[in-house]
Specification:
alpha+beta, single chain, transmembrane helix
Amino acid sequence: MTQALNRKKHDRLHDAVSGSEAFIEKLLFGNRAMLVFIFATLTVFLSYQASQIRLDASFEKMIPTSHPYISNYLEYKDEMTGMGNAVRIAVETTEGDIYTREFMATLQKIHDETFYIPGVDRSALLSLWSPAVRWLEVTEEGFAAGPVVSDTYDGTPASLEEVRANVAKSGTIGSLVANNFRSTVVYVPLLETDPQTGEPLDYHTLSQNFETLIRDKYESDNIKIHITGFAKVVGDLIDGATLVITFFAIALAITFVLLFAYSRCLRSTVISLLCSVIAVVWQLGLLRLLGYPLDPYSMLVPFLVFAIGVSHGVQVINAIAHQAMQGSNSELAARRAFNSLYVPGIIALVSDGVGFATLMVIEIAVIQDLAIAASMGVAVIILTNLVLLPVLMSYAGVSRRALSKLEHEEERSKHPLWTRLSQFTERRYALPLVLLLIGLATGGLIGSNNLKIGDLDAGAPELRPDSRYNRDNTFINQNYSTSTDIFVVMVKSEGSESCAKYRLQDVADQLQWRLQHLPGVQSSRSLADATKAIIAGTNEGNLRWMALNRNQQLLDQVSFRARFKDASTFNASCDLVPIVVYLNDHKAETLDSVVKVVERFKVEFDNDEFTFLLAAGNAGIEAATNIVIEKAQYKMLIWVYAVVGLLCLITFRSIRTVACILLPLAVTSILCQALMAQLGIGVKVATLPVIALGVGIGVDYGIYIYSKLESYLASGRSLKEAYFFTLKTTGKAVAFTGITLGIGVATWVFSPIKFQADMGILLTFMFVWNMIGALVFLPALTCFLLPSKRGKTVPQSFDHPGGGTTKAV
């Protein structure tokens, strides 16, 4: 009676697929040759497509375009030229200052060379050689103005002195010219599309152009070139990302060696790895067919697909070996293995795919593309590792050496490690583990309180602190008053020609005063600054006049002159005034403090005449991204666990069973967040998906373990006995997979890209802890949450998984 009830519960696993195993088994194994031919043809075709995939990134794909801040930026982007995506080229002299004939000649060549690089917004390009960079002064005859480098410049000492004087009058010291006069900046705003091809800007090609046409061509013993900006970061990441192929090869080699040592069968090792590699090739080929590029932030997805493929492949090989050991021929062993793994394998992979798809709730295009790539890869694994792998193994079979090794292991009635682990199904051993799990969760929650949103380091945290880019960024921050991190608040007024109103400029001036007293803010500028400077200039430079005048006619005249000096002070219709704030860095706390001040100010001063809009500038865009990430991280986790939990509930029809599978995963996610806090890794676009991807991998372990455990329970064994045999079959495959993949991805620590090294640490942690959770904590939770399955351990005879009979442990 008890065995009949257990068998009925076990049959629920198959309800999810309505008994389709037999039909699918006949369809696949009855047409093996045709199936192999189809797979081979598709692999050749998709291999070609994969070879054509390009590495690229888009600035707008990295930002949450639906966020109000970004919507404001995109709406006024054309009127805010140069305040979004831009590159800075700092040209430094190692001898004397910039006012030499040789240096100015080199700077002119660099300006001209940059002007013709595809993707550069030529109308907004700024340097000392730009006609738009002008000086302005008040003389006895009135106002005088002109370009910093005049048309009469000829490199003589007199003309160089004229340039020196013009720079002093231009207000560019600290922005375009270094405070020590030993370097100057070429400011290079970028377009979103290549004007020659109409395609999205290729940042890798653009970065290489800056290297070959500027740095390599003009850097010498006397001239040093420093380049910063989003495009350069992406270019460096893509250059470094090509090393991912090397690390992938290393991981493949490590997996091969360990899998062969585990199975002692060369043919099954090669076929298992081949199917996992085919899954990666298919994924890349399909991405190419659908028009998706591979960006630096989704480079971990192919390895993730490989890891999941290996995980399922090991389970298939393990099941085939056990069937062959019981006397089945190659085809029959493959058929039986397919039947036994069809349901848990499908459920696990569907859980993976749907779990990855939940990343689509994050409205950042690069993360949504990653979700599509990961889900597509999992869908491919269903075909390559649950279908093609057993079909190929039905031809190859398992070697006699591998079967002898397996028979020797099965003859041991008490394997020391499995015997020890099976004790965790007893209350006296399970209770300390459950308490430990609660303690780990509590400690993880406390540790994760320090987890920050956004970047925690200056420069580009994705790269090593000593990378060329971060050294260049440090140089600019140390030598210029205006940093590379710009936060722009836009003041939008009602009606054209309204930006010069006293009330608007006065309120803008007040906001600047508040911001300049914040830690992390270097300086700021707006129309109000230019207006005050010109008013003082018209009054013999008397500082007492360095203030806004309430005479509106005077303000109108002065504002016009301000735009003549600097066209970025307001837009052409005079209804949009940018307040440009220069920050020390773009760390999360710096951006957060600026946003809070502006938001409070906005509530206090917005009216029918004008309103304050956030935000433009690279720091403003990053602030919006941080806000979206902060809201999305828990929303994403809720969706991931809800979807995976629902699929497990449909499969096992038990909330308690779902808890046994998901609680260890949840603790791993919490501990991963605590680890990120300890390592100084912030939650941002590059790191947010990792936890969700880790859940997808970990749920495979739990589903395979519990499915096998329930099958042994259904035969009448006690929980301890059932778990002992689960460990000897599925459990050892899970342990091998977790350790092998952990070792393979740990090699990423040596990557020159810090982002990849950080991901290596986090993925290694999640591979290993998900394995521990499935092997150690899942049975302990089962002991308490499913007491009806515990049963009594009484001596009895039963069939051993490997053949023969064995007394109960």
